[in-house]
Amino acid sequence: MSLNLAFEKQVAIAAVRRACVLTASVFNNLVKNETLTKEDASPVTVGDFSAQAVINTILNRAFPDDPIVGEEDAADLRAESGAALRKRIVELANATLTAKLEVEEKEEWGLGPNYSQTTEQLLDIIDRGNYGGGRTGRMWTLDPIDGTKGFLRGEQYAVCLSLIVDAQVELGVIGCPNLPSDPSNPSGPRGNIFVAVRGQGAYQLPLHDPLSSPGTRLAIPAFTPENLNLLESVEKAHAKLSFNDRVAELLGVTRPPTRMDSQAKYAALSRGDGGVYLRMPTGVGYREKIWDHAPGSLIVEEAGGVVTDSRGERLDFGLGRTLGENFGVVAAGKQTHAKVLEAVKKALAEEKGQ
Ligand SMILES: Nc1ncnc2c1ncn2[C@@H]1O[C@H](COP(=O)(O)O)[C@@H](OP(=O)(O)O)[C@H]1O
Ligand SMILES: [Mg+2]
Ligand SMILES: [Mg+2]
Ligand SMILES: [Mg+2]
């Protein structure tokens, strides 16, 4: 049964939209113009903290009882050495929170000209993201900038928010400020929000139009080996890309992989812009974080896809802040997924035999 999450969805979209405006301005002011000196913090740090402050403020007002599993915490900001960074983050978060209300927003969410926060309030609100996760109850996951490396390169990154209830992702919202609206027109308009509520489908909305809801419904198309391609990380340290090459070979894929940072990969898959998202561990014992997969996996499922690990088991969002032991992620449309899983198992067996 689908939960009625209309209010949660409205709040989550508004929060992600505000954070995307903030991160885009951080990029334009701090990254492109290189206004930060070497002694300053990295612009991505400025963006991460202030975007988490903005989203947590809104969630905290709208859903005061809900815990949040957020990537960042304010410990470094509280330190004496964090003074300059702290000042910048407070300015940016307040500028974003006090901007005029959009039609779909409410003052009760701590938004608008009357809601400037103190430094202490903002640090505390960033630390509202310190929840440890778990098997029962409601919790939000937040990755304020996913794909930090892509953000710095001016490529793909995503603001990622989800609501998990009893270890099941029920709502996912991903803001992709740099993703083209139409994949067949890569130099056309960009900036999109992807949203899914379990049982209610996945949709793409233009980022800059607050009245665009519900947007365009997404459905993963069927693929043949000729038009199939893999979506994978840009960063070699994040996934075993040589393994992907072998899987592609076993599947008879001839198109080159599409490399993209962040959960924009799940968004691209959900609209058929790439047929498989494969992320196998590099073998260093890294545990995947729930905020890196929760919203993306629901959006793919609601676009008709399947998301499992390399054993074919569903990702378990009830283990805490991580997904536990890393068996990788295999996401694809229904028909494609079964074939990919078979190829993944074969490639794993080959590795073992070596
Ligand atoms: N060794 C590793 N293996 C897999 N993922 C890793 C990793 N080290 C960092 N990551 C995660 O990879 C995410 C980016 O994924 P992608 O490669 O798909 O763009 C990072 O998110 P952040 O950028 O939010 O820190 C980080 O959480
Ligand atoms: Mg991330
Ligand atoms: Mg991040
Ligand atoms: Mg990070």
TrEMBL record:
Transmembrane segments: none annotated. It comes from the Eukaryota. InterPro entries: DPNP, Inositol_monoP_metal-BS, Inositol_monoP_superfamily, Inositol_monophosphatase-like. Its cofactor is Mg(2+). Mg(2+) binds at residues 71, 143, 145-146, 292. Keywords: Hydrolase, Magnesium, Metal-binding. Its EC number is 3.1.3.7. GO terms for biological process: sulfate assimilation. Pfam families: Inositol_P (PF00459). Belongs to the inositol monophosphatase superfamily. This is 3'(2'),5'-bisphosphate nucleotidase.
